[in-house]
Design goal:
heterodimer; A: mainly alpha; Cytochrome Bc1 Complex, Chain D, domain 2; about 0% strand; B: mainly alpha; 3-stranded mixed sheet; 11 helices
Amino acid sequence: MRVLTSSVRRILFALCAATLPTAYAQAPAVAPYAVTGAAIVAPLGGLTGDALRGRAIVVDRQVGMCLLCHPGPFPEERFQGNLAPDLASIGRRLDAGQLRLRIVDSRRVNPETTMPAYHRIDGRMRVAPAWSGRPLLTAQQVEDVVALLATLRD
Amino acid sequence: MSRGRRNAAAVALALAMAPHPPAGAQADARRSGYEFMGAATQAMQRDDAQNPAMLWVAEGEALWKRREPGVERSCADCHGEARTAMRGVAARYPAIEASSGRPVTLAQRISTCRADRQRGVAYALESEPLVSLEAYIAMQSRGLPLAPPADARLAEARRRGGALFRQRVGALDLACTQCHDELAGRRLGGSPIPQAHPTGYPIYRLEWQAVGTLERRIRGCYTGVRAQPPAIGSAELVDLQVFLAARAAGMIVESPGVRP
């Protein structure tokens, strides 16, 4: 099932917010964003990330799942994957905007990538009911992960 | 001529002069999941005295011979000795069922025999007695090459199964082929990714603490990518198994396997 494109969703959301009582006007599941070059320069929803919370997300095998694929400088975590680049010096190689795009939707950088799009819900097939209409990470979680990655400078 | 071009020309010449390799002698890059396991798990599979799946096999053998109350004939009453009658059978499933013209798994075939020929209640798919019988029958093909039958209807199912194998699914939006063709041998967390060949099924899986089927294993991968798995016994799961059998044609049956 194709979900509404983000611009249509934004308009609908604005309409709902205008006509419904505030209790119904929740934040949309996926925050709007603009891609410039290979980056999302502005933080999602204008939120501020927290590197410590980001760390907890990255090492969690159910939440971030990052270490299933990536090795990284988290010595207490055994069983790291080796099918993706090492995250050790990622904060030197990519700036916050580039990191943000890769977490939000890495397919915008490489359409063939195995890296999941963490803040995108359209175009997915056969999603388990528990995850339908819900991105892998919320806007706040994305910002937390970006904040953590920016600190990984070898 | 650049050095690269010169080297390429030399290689081409050498190939042209070399005797053609016999057919089938090219390196086969396919590897059973067995080869991706640690030594201890491999030893557990190799030695029947250590392989926990042999408990299910023993149960399957008893069921093969048992004439249960209310059931007209035992499997053995119709087929005789499994050792000879069932040799090679598991190696060619899924196969086309004559009555429906559709591909069925070995488990579905056993269940039909039980319902129609034995006039008993069909075994539920994935039930303990059915998995045990399947393990017993699969073991009779040990050491034989997987030999999917040539049949146009199976070719159709294989095509559909191949499309499923390449279909990105779930919240992680990943396809089987990404892990099992492109990334096989790499580590996902602590586990080496195998090539997904159905050589050992049914398997005793340490994580399950039980013997389970290929369908159960495949559904686990769907759940892993946060996708809604196809139902047990569904046409989609059968098609996927037809595809996997063709992809592994000629590989050696090692049932009952052990996997982590």
